[in-house]
Structure formats: structure tokens, C-alpha cells
Known about the structure:
Helices cover about 50% and strands about 15% of the residues. The protein is of the alpha/beta class. The longest helix is centred in the middle third of the chain and has 21 residues, at about 145-165.
Amino acid sequence: MSELLVTADGPVLRVVFNRPAQHNALTWAMWDGLYDACERADADPSIKLLVLSGAGGRAFVAGTDIAQFTSFTDGDDGIAYERKVQRIIDRLERVKVPTMAVVEGYCVGGGLVVAAACDLRLAVPGSRFGAPIARTLGNCLSMNTYSLLVHHLGPARTLDMLLRARMFTGEEARAAGFVAELCEPDALAARQAEVEERLLSHAPLSMWAAKEAVRRLRVANLPDGDDLVATVFGSADFHAAVPAFLAKEEVTWQGL
């Protein structure tokens, strides 16, 4: 069974993250498949909408598969990783048709970034949003990801989420404006269909101009952050935390 299901449903291209036993944690192949799905959405004139969701009902995406960090040796590996992710997130943000993330369960780490790069987010109240790296891996985010979170949540909520390693509830994410609409699980499919129908009825170029204008405003003054990534991914804390996380052991943070 494919870890990433990409199917055309009439004018809607549907992408399903399909590792439910691992809470749909992203492998490199899944990241690459998401990029290819974005390319497909723009290359096929019959596609008018891109919709992302997670299989299993327990998670949208619970981050990047942590096992993939075991090969990291220094800060340069962190920079290469974040640049690869940024290339894919930038591609998702640049898709010409509207994009929508449908969230059930955990939307964490890389999953939060993917959802943030979409134009709209629907979720159920039981969803959880966050990037609790300050208590798990001791790594950091790219400058582009920090920008996305501040763009959606504002600096105070972003720091609250990251410093306290908080998981926002669906209600909190909706109050912050991150989630466009909350639906009870038994009503989600119907509401999703209604939103899709509405988007498909609107002027494509008007929607493209709106989303592209917002993207350009966000990235207009995006600073470099490679020094932050190199410092944190190259730290002793990070290299101790990865195997500890996989072994379900506690980490004693040293700040080194």
C-alpha cells in the first residue's frame, strides 16, 4: 500500500498521507510525493482544487519520521534537511489552484507546516496542533517555518506554542484564525464537500491572485536563518535526543 495516495476525483486532486500506524509521519518519499502532487496539480488544466488529508482518523501528519534523523552528523545535515522541506513547502504554497488541509487528530511538526502552507484548513474539535520540539528532539524550525507560524498565529501565540511545547486544541486553532472551520467528525465529510463545491464555483484567477499576493507579502522580508539551524541541529542536545526519543527515554538538556 502506498504511503501517499494521490488521485484525481474530477476537478479535485486528493492527497492522502497513508501511514496510519505511524500517525502518517512523513518519510522522504512522502515529502517527494507531495512535491510531485503539486507539480501535477499545476500541470493538469482539469484540476481546480488540491485537498490534503490523513488516513486513519487519528492524525493529519504527526511530523517527519524521526528515524530519518539518526543519520545526521552535524549542523550542515540540519540545513540540508530544512532546505529540502522548504523547497517542498514553497512549492505547495505556490500551487495555482486553492489548497485545503482537512485535519483529524494530530497535526504536528512537519504536519503543522504542511497545513500552514495550505490556503484553508478544516478540522474536527479533537484535532491537536503544535511543534513540541522543545521537549522532544531539541531541534529548531527553519526561518521560513517560523515565518509561516507567525504569519498565521502572530508572535505571541507562536512563542506560546513553541516555548511551552503546547498542543493547541481545535477550538484554540479556530480562535487564532488558523483553522477556517471546525466540524464534528460525523459532519466533516459533508462540510468538506460543501467547501469544495464553493471553491470550484469561483473565478480561478481571482483566487490565484489573492493567494499569491498573500504569499508574496509573507516572504517579502524573509531573513536567512541557517545559522540558527546549524547551531541547533549540530548540538549535543539534539544528537542525544534523537535516539532517546526513539527509545522512549528521557533527555537531560544541557544547552550544548
